[in-house]
Design goal:
This protein is mainly β and 114 residues long. It has a single domain, classed as Beta Barrel (OB fold (Dihydrolipoamide Acetyltransferase, E2P)). The chain is 6% helix and 34% strand. The chain has a five-stranded antiparallel sheet, with no helix packed on it. The chain has a two-stranded antiparallel ribbon with strand order 1-7. The longest helix is centred in the C-terminal third of the chain and has 7 residues. The radius of gyration is 23 Å and the shape is globular.
Length: 114
């Protein structure tokens, strides 16, 4: 099963929250200041999560941070959809359809421009 959550709903805090629902310790691996927000990339086990937080969260890259995913913001995706979204799934992938050959223009341009 795959769980989807929007980056702005991935909560990040430096101190472990008192309510322990859906809380994990992660490591910040990247952050990009965007003015009104900061995009964080955090590593949680083998997974990378994106989070969009207020610039007041100043956790340095490489430091520990806690991730909390509110259950009401999580969406479970069906297995069929999961295999189409993730190329690492075991489903056999079809090659992309071939494109038809491009035809010559109906109005060719002469080398002299006329």
């Amino acid at each position: 099963m795959l769980v989807s959550v929007r980056p702005e709903d991935v909560e990040l805090v430096e101190a472990k929250p008192q309510n322990g629902n859906n809380v994990w310790r992660a490591s910040s691996t990247r952050k990009v200041f965007l003015g009104e927000c900061v995009d964080f990339q955090v590593k949680l086990g083998e997974r990378m999560l994106m989070s969009r937080r207020h610039p007041s969260l100043r956790t340095p890259i490489g430091h520990s941070i806690f991730v909390q995913l509110p259950p009401e913001k999580c969406v479970a995706l069906k297995a069929v959809l999961t295999s189409r979204l993730l190329p690492s799934c075991k489903e056999t992938r079809r090659p992309p359809p071939s494109r038809p050959a491009t035809r010559a223009s109906k109005y060719p341009v002469s080398p002299t421009g006329g």
